[in-house]
Amino acid sequence: MEPVEQTVTPILSLNDLDYITNTLDRSFTRFNNEYSLMAKSSLEEKRFGNALAFKDKNHPTSNYYNRVIGLSEGDEAHLDEILTWFKKSNLHFTVSLPPHLQSPTLVSALYQKGFQLSEPDCLFAAIPKEANEPNCIQVEKITKNNVSKLLKLMKQSGGKVLPTQVKKIEKEIVGSRFDFYVVIIDGIAVARASIFFYEKTAWLSNAVTLPEFRGLGCHGMLLKTRLNAAFNRGCSLALTDTHFGTTSHRNILRSGFHLCYMTAEFTW
Description:
It is built from seven helices and 13 strands. The protein is an alpha+beta fold. The chain folds into two domains: 107 residues, no CATH class; 108 residues, Aminopeptidase, CATH 3.40.630.30.
């Protein structure tokens, strides 16, 4: 078994971490939707008690754009309203509950309304650090000059890129909130990942490697590169998420992240 690098656990209470995560999550969900290359933005938001619901008719199969966060004990009375809101758009959705919100009363209410427990999501945190070792794999930061490499890679990985959205992302790439990186092998972009900055926190996401290039360390190098970027940016915390027991999970731990918690995901 390969050794896992020891990490310094960020000193945060579960409530503080959940607040940071939800605040950043809301901001990044809006950003991701606005600058999506695959479909025009149609994201809607609505408050139901403590909960915030997102839905997007242009991404009908996405459990990222069609979900509820922040649902808490006492919000059971809003479940019918939430269901009606999604049913009007004929959309299925997910309710995400971190551990401290998984009360027996709330969970029982979800089951009674027909929700099913699905695969959990794992949240990881790390203190950004400077990369002291040279990269053994070539990584490029995306700019206006090489954005064509990213667009080609997205098409290769199954995406349908809308020309009207390309101009948006080209403008934002040179902005201050968001960066994309790609791994280059033999002059070709074969893996990609992004980093989103919100105050002093960085969110690492959108990691994809072409199937034929998996197992070469691309994801690990992109994690290392983005943690270094967060360090250089002065971030005090880096967050990322993935499903439990996956290759991504193992790569994230090797890169110095700490598993904070696993959410309960309820789908309808």
